[in-house]
Amino acid sequence: VLGLVAILPFLTFPLRVAETGVIAISSKPAERWEDALISGNGATGIMVFGRPHEETVVVNHERLWVQCAHDTREVVDLRDAVVEARKLAREGRYANALHIMQTTFGETNRRRYGKDHLEGEDKRRIESDRVHPGFHLFLSAPASGVVREYRREMLLQTGEIIVSWRDDAGRWTRRAFVSRPHDAVVVHISSPKTKSFRGTLKLAPASVTREGDIASVKVDHKDDEFYFHSAYGRTGGRPEPEGYHALGRVICRGGNSVGRKDGIHIEDANEILVILRLSYLDKASQANRDALRNDVTAIPSNYDKLKRAHVAIHKEMFDRVRLDLGGGHGRGRYTEEMLAEADKKGPTPELLELLYDVGRYALISSSGDLPPALMGIWGGSWDAPFDGSYTLDSNLNLAVSAGSASNLPEAMESYFGFVEGLYPDWQINARSFY
């Protein structure tokens, strides 16, 4: 059930199999980030809302975690307390056993850190690091009449997100994906033949909900480039805080672009291509904007060429298996319709095919150097449920459970490497507890 809940937000779209492959289709934009369409290359992820005139793209990364302490936390040595607690428990004195454990835990933390960290409703919990969104890419443009024939699509076999609609000027189309071979977010905007594009592109911080999470943020917009840099407010035991930065090129076909404080203003463009790379920094002070610009500039400025290189990798992974239960993979039906039908009659073959395909898509798109956390590599909140963290009792196990059955050794390598990296800490925990 937990694994199913994790992917249900991505299932509010119809699914069809066409010449372009398996596609999830929605007839309206997302109102919440939980309903945004997703794409990812394992490390970097995007969530696209699909709003015609006020678009929001949330950019995420697998290594963006809020540092919640300045010091390195060590597990409390409870060996003597465990012996005493077990003795009391064998005598049926469970409340006393619990009291021994909590008192020892609190007193040790108080001596070490100055307080026992047992405040709040749940006195057993210590605040952990939290996942968070990197930043937002906003696109605003004036309307050209009433929006008609709207659709947003998530192409599961290519990792591409397409948003399109028609208005008085004609058909507008936006495409986006996260390239595997070039490690970049790629966005393409095309206008109707009878109307050029006029609007604003800008980067903005994702709103922070807790004081001290972020120490500094820098956003800079130039005529054909935007840059973002952020440093965490706490060190987590390191000599200096970690951080991340991103740089994007804005390439206009026709027209011109002017960088201002509030964004990049674009006039009379027929097409716009955005190529953006987000990089995690072991030390926030080591950001090198010039080097990042050189790397991004070296990426080909052709959407179709970039897409072909990405699809060659992503599609091969997705197509390694296929589940055919005779459901026709949706036959163009809306997922809301299938879910409503399943609620009355039980899960149908087409719904199970949809679940299988979307689950594999999410796993492929969120398995990088690290395995997927609780929400994969996506999220739009600084207060994610359960911190968006790794929980090893069931959630992470369920997240990677399709790795073997779907012939995805890449996903399993992420999981194996993560577990192996935890092993030294687990040895310390075993000594301290047992």
Task: Provide the descriptors you would attach to this structure in a database record.
434 residues, seven-stranded antiparallel β-sheet, globular
Structure, described:
29% of the residues lie in helices and 30% in strands. It is an alpha+beta fold. A 10-stranded antiparallel sheet has the order 1-2-9-10-11-12-19-16-15-14, covered by helices on one side. A hairpin with a 3-residue loop joins strand 14 (214-221) and strand 15 (225-232).
Give a short overview.
Helix content is 29%, strand content 30%. With 434 residues, it is of the alpha+beta class.
Strand percentage, roughly?
Answer: 25-35%
Instruction: Give the helix tally.
Output: 10
Major beta sheet summary: 10 strands, antiparallel
Counted beta strands: 19
> What general outline do the C-alpha atoms trace?
globular
N/C terminus separation: 32 Å
> Mind telling me the C-alpha Rg?
24 Å
Strand order of the largest sheet: 1-2-9-10-11-12-19-16-15-14
| Structural class by sheet pairing and helices | alpha+beta
Mean pLDDT: 89
The amount of helix comes to 25-40%
Uncertain segments: 1-19, 120-125
Order of helices and strands: HEEEEEEHHEEEEEEEEEEEEEHHHHHHH
Task: Give the topology, please.
Layout: H1 2-7, E1 15-18, E2 21-26, E3 37-40, E4 44-48, E5 54-61, E6 65-66, H2 79-90, H3 94-113, E7 130-131, E8 135-140, E9 148-155, E10 160-167, E11 170-179, E12 184-190, E13 197-205, E14 214-221, E15 225-232, E16 243-253, E17 256-260, E18 263-269, E19 271-281, H4 289-297, H5 303-318, H6 335-345, H7 349-365, H8 395-399, H9 402-405, H10 409-433
Antiparallel strand pairs: 1-2, 2-9, 3-4, 4-5, 5-8, 6-7, 8-13, 9-10, 10-11, 11-12, 12-19, 13-18, 14-15, 15-16, 16-19, 17-18
Helix pairs in contact: 2-3
